């Protein structure tokens, strides 16, 4: 592990104990947390993307604001649901964001996870999927998105304006944007395909596989398959891998009250999500010395380039900054962490 960041689901609601009552609260607090994390030396600030729910939904304005108010931290998504996106418009937005952030972005994209709306992408106007989960249109649109950010001329030009037989590329373009695109992988097959395509790989706290092996071993196998496929395809870049974990250093009574019981209930879980029998990763909550030992034994954490800490965003900026700072001071250095302000 060379880097770590946070991943916010962007929950908000007028419920007891929440400091994030409205969408405005959530957006402003996410920006403030990115600023605080940047000052700590945290490497990445990412947000989830969900639709038709009281969660973060439209990431580009939020990421642009985060990038504009920070200096070093990478801003990103985990993940943009491609079923709901116009690929060319997303390509324009991503390139603009990349320029605003001066290359400090890590855009995670995928088919997306289950949403509360039934085939909600159709309400957005994206029809024609024959897959009940929409994977077919997600892949088609992602392919077009990649072609667009690579500068392919996709739109026929008006002969009166650009001459006969001319095709136009999107603008703006960012020449190195493709290097900062990540695919959210949940299985061995998608991990290998991600490697073959030369993309970075993002893996979350659940895998759409359940073989009886521990979660971290399944995820480590996916990382190894991904890197092997990347090399075998002849790519010469530096492929990056991120994994997500729920990690809470127990530093005081407040931490113990919130998460102390999690350490006693620690363990992977098996369940069904979106029709797939899946493995869900455990929560790590313990004193720093115990966490260091546990995380060293997590083979996927140690193999990944970046670990994203899933945060309880409704507990507010101050508390989540405390979690990040505790991890940065007392745990991350023993795992190989390099702060964003290191020379």
Compact overview of the structure:
The chain is α/β, with parallel strands linked by helices and about 350 residues long. Helix content is about 40%, strand content about 20%.
Task: Give a count of the beta strands, DSSP E runs of length 2 or more.
Answer: 14
- Describe the sheet with the most strands: 8 strands, parallel, barrel
Q: Which radius of gyration do the C-alpha atoms yield? A: 20 Å
Report how far apart the termini are.
18 Å
Broad shape: globular
- Overall average pLDDT: 92
Question: Which homologous superfamily in CATH is the superfamily?
Answer: Luciferase-like domain
Strand order of the largest sheet: 1-2-3-4-7-8-10-14
Order of helices and strands: EHEHEHEHHEHEEHEEHEHEEEHHEH
CATH topology: TIM Barrel
Structural class: alpha/beta
Percent strand? 15-25%
The number of helices is 12
What percent of residues adopt helix (DSSP H or I)? 25-40%
Low-confidence regions = 270-274
| Known CATH architecture | Alpha-Beta Barrel
> Can you tell me the CATH class?
Alpha Beta
Question: How many separate domains make up the residues?
Answer: 1
């Amino acid at each position: 592990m060379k880097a770590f960041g946070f991943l916010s689901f962007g929950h908000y609601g007028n419920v007891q104990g929440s400091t994030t009552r409205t969408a405005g609260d959530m957006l402003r607090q996410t920006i403030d947390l990115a600023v605080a994390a940047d000052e700590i030396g945290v490497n990445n600030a990412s947000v989830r993307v969900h639709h038709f729910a009281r969660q973060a939904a439209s990431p580009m304005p939020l990421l642009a604001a985060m990038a504009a108010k920070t200096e070093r931290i990478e801003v990103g998504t985990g993940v943009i649901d491609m079923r709901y996106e116009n690929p060319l418009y997303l390509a324009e937005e991503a390139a603009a964001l990349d320029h605003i952030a001066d290359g400090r972005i890590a855009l995670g994209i995928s088919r997306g996870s289950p949403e509360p709306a039934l085939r909600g992408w159709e309400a957005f106007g994206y029809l024609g999927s024959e897959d009940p989960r929409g994977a077919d249109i997600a892949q088609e649109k992602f392919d077009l998105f990649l072609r667009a950010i690579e500068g392919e001329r996709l739109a026929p030009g008006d002969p009166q304006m650009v001459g006969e037989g001319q095709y136009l590329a999107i603008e703006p373009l960012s020449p190195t944007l493709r290097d900062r695109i990540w695919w959210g992988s949940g299985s061995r097959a998608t991990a290998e395909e991600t490697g073959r395509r030369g993309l970075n790989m993002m893996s979350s706290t659940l895998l759409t596989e359940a073989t009886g092996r521990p979660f971290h071993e399944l995820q480590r196998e996916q990382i190894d398959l991904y890197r092997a496929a990347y090399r075998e395809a002849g790519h010469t870049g530096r492929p990056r891998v991120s994994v997500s974990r729920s990690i809470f250093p127990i530093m005081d009574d407040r931490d113990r009250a919130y998460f102390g019981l999690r350490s006693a209930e620690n363990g992977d879980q098996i369940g069904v999500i979106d029709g797939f029998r899946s493995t869900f990763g455990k929560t790590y909550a313990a004193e720093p010395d115990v966490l260091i030992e546990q995380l060293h034994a997590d083979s996927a954490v140690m193999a990944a380039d970046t670990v994203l800490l899933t945060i309880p965003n409704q507990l507010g900026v101050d508390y989540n900054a405390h979690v990040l700072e505790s991890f940065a001071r007392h745990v991350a250095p023993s795992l190989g962490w390099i702060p964003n302000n290191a020379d």
